Amino acid sequence: MQQLSYATIAGLVQAAEKAGVPLSHLVLADQAQQLERTPQSLWEQMDQSLAVMEESAQMGMRPDIRSTSGLTGGDAARMQAYAKGGSPLAGGPFARAVARALAVSEYNAAMGRIVAAPTAGSCGILPAAVLTMLQDRGASREACIYSLFTAAAVGMVIAQNACIAGAQGGCQAECGSAAAMAAAALVELAGGTPDQCAQAVAIALKNVLGLVCDPVAGLVEIPCIKRNASGVAGAFTAADMALAGIKSAIPADEVILAMKWVGDAMPAALRETAEGGLAATPTGRRLHRQVFGDQPAGEML
Fold first, then answer.
1. Of 194, 267, 243, which Cα lies nearest the Cα of 25?
2. CA of residue 175 relative to chain centroid, distance
3. What DSSP state is assigned to residue 271?
4. CB contact at 8 A, 109 and 212
5. By CB atoms within 10 Å of each CB, which of 9, 169, 214, 217 scores lowest?
6. Beta-bridge partners for 213
């Protein structure tokens, strides 16, 4: 088997179609070869990652959870209660996916153990998508583990051609990349083709082009946690469109390159410096003073 370069999404799709296997099967076999490990050992490692995702989603649902700054916590429990007892506009599984994204993100802000997927700031999106398929839509654990390999491959392509860091490319590079990874995983879990995975990647990522990174008080809490919730919403939307046969007019690889261009053009104030966007609003500055006193935000970074 020829080693994969992870240079393009199109290349991965072509290789999977040629082999007649889902993207995840191709990636698992390739990574085992490149890392000189057995597929079983990589499988077990990914199973452990899924277990951490499960734990963080569960722990983050506690109503009493609070971040170390005191700025956030408890919203996942509120969303979960609404999903159970209310009438969610988009349906129960969708509302529970949002609750899981909030839970993992709030657990991260409370210094809990999470899986950076691909970063800590975007850690709630992929777990929320995959766990919703596992716990609400009847997907097998085996299929969910496989889907994480597909998500990982998408992340590797994005990291190689653009970036996954908010400080470099804005939140489009973090929550946007995570949403694209989750969309591909969802499509595969729903029985979609490798090409439909690629379409979902393109749709999810292009819908958040230009999303800035503007953490209030320089902390990965506001607005990051709620952006994880919107990220999983975008992943489900992109996956459903791709599964319906809708194609992105701009191919996934070109969307990734566009994200890089946008990120490079983004002012430093909008790339995790806490000097612009929501962080620079009157309330954002007040919350900074609430946590750090009168020390300027720039000195905290």
1. 194
2. 5
3. B
4. no
5. 217
6. 271
Which residue has tokens 């390999």? 149
Give the Å distances, CA to CA, from 57 to 50, 52, 84, 104, 157: 11, 9, 16, 5, 27
pLDDT tens-place string over residues 190-240: 999 999 999 999 999 999 999 999 999 999 999 999 999 999 999 999 999
Question: 67 near 120, Cβ under 8 Å?
Answer: no
pTM equals: 0.96
Give tens-digit pLDDT for 83-133.
999 899 999 999 999 999 999 999 999 999 999 999 999 999 999 999 999
Q: How far apart, in whole angstroms, are the C-alpha atoms of residue 233 and residue 210?
A: 18
The answer to whether 120 and 114 are in contact (CB under 8 A) is yes
> The tokens 């290349």 sit on which residue?
11
State the Cα torsion 273-277-283-288 to the nearest 10°.
0
Q: Which amino acid, one-letter code, is at 225?
A: I
The tokens describing 134, both together, are 């596992």
Q: How far is CA 163 from CA 91, 173, 177, in A?
A: 34, 6, 9
213 three-state secondary structure: strand
Q: What is the pLDDT of residue 136?
A: 97
**DSSP per-residue codes, the chain:** -PPP----HHHHHHHHHHHTS-HHHHHHHHHHHHHT--HHHHHHHHHHHHHHHHHHHHHTT-TT---TTSS--SHHHHHHHHHHHS--TT-HHHHHHHHHHHHHHHHHHTT-----SS-GGGTTHHHHHHHHHHHTS---HHHHHHHHHHHHHHHHHHHHHS---HHHH-GGGTHHHHHHHHHHHHHHHTT--HHHHHHHHHHHHHTTTT--B--GGG-S-TTHHHHHHHHHHHHHHHHHHHHTT---SS-HHHHHHHHHHHHHHS-GGGBSSSSSGGGGSHHHHHHHHHHHTT--GGGG-
Mean residue pLDDT of the chain comes to 96
